[in-house]
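User: Before I run my own analysis I want an independent prediction to cross-check against. Here's the chain; please return only the structure tokens and, at the end, one sentence I can use as a sanity check.
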Amino acid sequence: MEPAGHRGAGKGPKHPFASQARRPGNRERPGPGRAPTLLFWGLLGALLLVVGSRVPARPEPTLAMDPSVAPDLQALAQETWARFLAAFPAQRGCIRDVTLVADPDLSDRAVYHVPTATVRVKVPGSAARLRAALVHEWAHHLEITCPAHRELRPAFLRSLGLPVEAPWFQGQAWEATPSEIYAEAAVELVLGSRSMPTKARVPSAAVERLRVWAQAR
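Assistant: Structure tokens:
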């Protein structure tokens, strides 16, 4: 579904005094300020280690639930969200929080609203349909909010047989739009298969290209 509102040592020459350094009586003596200098750098290194150890890690991205989301859908969504995060280990720090809303009046299976980072999903629905719809829209959430996503696009376009200059968010039809094929590839990557197939044709090379980026292999 198209997001709503989207739119490089070599060896140097032998030192001339190298042989003298091995002769007795020619041993270098530390200068008067060498010991304090070594002490300074040792203390500085220890301080940096302490400070670095206290920098808090970025919290895990969260899936917020709107009051419209029933307990059974919450459980299914949280389990699917965990699978989504696990499928993108190399991009975990780039995934942002997102909100889920259940909407019985939605005309499509689901939609992603860019300004509020919200996914609206049509209810009721089968578990298979809901999982596929959620992953598809979370894939759009990732492509919009993660700057590193642009690194994926040239190789992904080539996997589709398209030039790297091809528009990412445009196509002759929904199923021919690279952004939508990517989102369907994400469904296959996260869930193992597309149990709710669409008109979009997803080459195995595209899924593998997405897997390489997601796992940085």
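Sanity check: Residues 158 and 190 are 22 Å apart (CA to CA).
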